[in-house]
Design goal:
The protein is α+β, with helices and mostly antiparallel strands. The chain has 2 domains: 81 residues, Winged helix-like DNA-binding domain superfamily/Winged helix DNA-binding domain (Arc Repressor Mutant, subunit A), CATH 1.10.10; 140 residues, 3-Layer(aba) Sandwich (Trna Endonuclease, Chain: A, domain 1). The chain is 38% helix and 20% strand. The chain is built from 9 helices and 10 strands. Helix 1 crosses helix 4. The protein binds a DNA duplex through helix 3.
DNA sequence: TAATCAGACTCATTACTCGC
DNA sequence: GCGAGTAATGAGTCTGATTA
């Protein structure tokens, strides 16, 4: 059966191309906030059957991931977006999911987004620094605030994260930023991180929160912990620095 | 048992055709 | 050009199948 593409379908395909893989739940929050999960699944199934989407499930009770399909890519191109080549199955699915969760948290917040890029987009944008953050984004508050984002599943060694933080502390020449935001799946790493940051004397502002906290209250209302002092604060609280414009 | 998806069914909306 | 009728499709609910 032919599918009549709606404006929402096109936006959805563009977003899938940008994000590589998005889950049914993520697409529901973005494009079907009023619809039931069943209705969302049905629409996505239809788009997949018609070749506009590609869907992948790890096992029958797992949530589906969706990427732009063969018929979706040309439509995405028409919109001026370079279609990101998604692999046959989502690689590092949990990490990809987490990075896209941060993207949704930023984009669904009420604050105007200047830009948001995930690590897979940065190379094409001429990112020239030896360290590649999971996300880079800027919002207008009304001054521009720029953040580097790391999604920490706790599966990577602390050393790897610290290497990145050291590089951020050294500064990215010509790319000033306000803080490094670390979003973790669990808060257990806080103690270790705080200890290491204090031991190394890193001066880069580091704010840590959990994915659950962000999903509950939204990114900019969520409680973060500023390391190494472990001071609780929201992103735009207690920030004495002038916004970069 | 719980989570997810597929299929059947129904209703609403939109696009198209045709007669006036 | 306009309105009525019809077909196609979107969107919703409900139920069942599947499997970790």
């Amino acid at each position: 059966m032919a599918v009549r593409l709606t404006e929402r379908d096109t936006c959805l395909l563009v977003k899938c191309a940008l994000c590589r893989w998005l889950t049914t739940d993520q697409l529901q929050r973005l494009y079907f906030p009023e619809a039931t999960l069943n209705a969302v699944q049905k629409r996505l199934r239809k788009l997949a059957d018609a070749g506009y989407l590609r869907s992948y499930r790890e096992h029958p009770t797992a949530e589906s991931f969706h990427a732009a399909g063969p018929k979706g890519a040309p439509l995405v191109k028409e919109k001026g977006v370079a279609a990101m080549a998604a692999s046959d199955v989502p690689r590092q699915a949990e990490h990809l999911w987490g990075v896209n969760e941060v993207r949704l948290a930023v984009e669904l917040a009420s604050m105007p987004v200047v830009y948001f890029f995930a690590y897979w987009e940065l190379a094409d944008l001429g990112w020239r620094f030896p360290v590649i953050p999971d996300t880079v984004f800027a919002v207008r508050t009304p001054g521009r605030r720029t953040f580097l984002g790391e999604y920490d599943r706790g599966t990577e060694t602390l050393d790897k994260l610290l290497v990145k933080l050291r590089r951020y502390a050294d500064g990215l020449e010509g790319f000033p930023f306000d803080a490094v935001l670390i979003v973790t799946e669990e808060s257990r790493r806080l103690d270790l991180l705080a200890k290491e940051i204090r031991r190394e004397g890193l001066t880069v502002p580091v704010l840590v929160s959990t994915l659950e906290a962000i999903r509950q209250t939204g990114l900019f209302d969520a409680e973060f912990v500023e390391l190494p002092r472990r001071t609780p604060r929201k992103i735009f609280e207690n920030n004495d620095e002038e916004a970069i414009d």
